Amino acid sequence: MPRYAGACHCGDIRFEVEADPVELTTCDCSLCARRNALMIRVPQEALRLLAGEDRLATYVWNTGVARHHFCRRCGVYTFHRKRAAPDSLGVNVFCLDGFDPAALPVRRTDGAGMSLQEPQS
Ligand SMILES: [Zn+2]
Description:
The protein is mainly β. It has one helix spanning 30-35; strands at 3-7, 14-18, 24-27, 39-43, 47-51, 56-59, 67-71, 77-81, 88-92, 106-109. It has a single domain, classed as Metal Binding Protein, Guanine Nucleotide Exchange Factor, Chain A. A five-stranded antiparallel β-sheet has the order 4-9-8-7-6, with no helix packed on it. Strands 1-2-5 form a three-stranded antiparallel β-sheet, with no helix packed on it. It has a two-stranded parallel ribbon with strand order 3-10. Zinc ion binds next to loops.
């Protein structure tokens, strides 16, 4: 299984991922549309955080199931725990060394269509 070294921009967060993905995904939810990442999905065991656990910020919104991680220092989105599959992670492929996004097809996933919780009034 190929192994990729991953990092945010400033290098505070470093990780490695074992993955042999067949596709990339985008998501059109209100968060992903703004961060505009191409992602691969991996089982959570496939990602190992090597450095920067204390530098990893977490953004949680709406249902609170998905956990979106990014670097406190440089702000780059690195990976997130998925809402639809909480034992899987979505990983920002642009953080991976030697990964060629152009070699894989891109599948658009439906995030905008996922139910949102109404704010409690
Ligand atoms: Zn950083």
